[in-house]
Amino acid sequence: MNTVNPASNEKEYLRDYFNEKRAQLCEDLSRKEALDAEIQTRLIISSEYRAAESVLIYMARPDEISTSLIIHAALANNKTVALPVCNADKSMTFRQIRDIVDLKPGSFGILEPDESCPVITPGESSLCVCPGLCCDMRGFRLGFGGGYYDRFLADFKGVKAALCYSDSVIPAIAADKYDVRMNVIHTDSFTRYIKD
């Protein structure tokens, strides 16, 4: 498994670097769709997905790794499926959906569950699927800078899984004390389980 080595592991530099790589990938939609499908398939066939009673997952923006295959699979597999709603205090609440029609445009133009969807309280049998620009070999992920996931994951007891392109996995991110490590990283060419 090869990792890339950007010139710096500082977060601001990495965000610029990987946002540029992501923009380039989005210009080749057929390649992006193929990579996204491989990443999602790796998660769907994983033991942590099979064991999960509930799946907490984001609805991807066009420049993020797609999650539609996972969402449809989890609904078909009769799992509890919940998507985040971003709150004014920069926290996230997950609300259960029973169908894609339960979603409406919300914060940042991202589809979110309607307010009529019930809030769920995740437990140890929950799988939280997290977005990111890049991940490191130790299990840390670099998000888009809002800190929503790290705040939510601080008290989360289930399995934390990141979706990441294989060419966006680096040796180390300059993590701080608020960053939460993933349990597993699924990429288009490998899956990495993080040991404590």
Task: Describe what you observe in this structure.
- The chain is α/β, with parallel strands linked by helices and 196 residues long.
- The chain is 27% helix and 23% strand.
- It contains five helices and twelve strands.
- The strands form three sheets. The protein has a seven-stranded mixed sheet with strand order 3-2-1-6-9-11-12. A three-stranded mixed sheet has the order 8-7-10.
- A hairpin with a 4-residue loop joins β7 and β8 (141-142).
- α2 packs parallel to α4.
- The chain is globular, with a radius of gyration of 16 Å.
- The protein starts with 10 loop residues before the first helix and ends with a strand.
In short:
By secondary structure, the chain is α/β, with parallel strands linked by helices. The protein contains five helices and twelve strands.
Q: How do the helices and strands line up, and which of them pair or pack?
A:
Blueprint (H helix, E strand, L loop, with lengths): L10 H16 L2 H16 L2 H5 L2 E4 L10 H9 L3 E7 L5 E6 L5 E3 L5 E3 L12 E5 L3 E3 L4 E2 L5 H6 L5 E5 L5 E2 L13 E3 L4 E3 L3
Parallel strand pairs: 1-2, 1-6, 6-9, 7-10, 9-11
Antiparallel strand pairs: 2-3, 4-5, 7-8, 11-12
Helix pairs in contact: 2-4
CATH fold descriptor: Rossmann fold
Main pleated-sheet profile: 7 strands, mixed
How confident overall, as mean pLDDT? 92
Overall form:
globular
The secondary structure category is alpha/beta
Distance between the termini: 20 Å
Rg (CA only):
16 Å
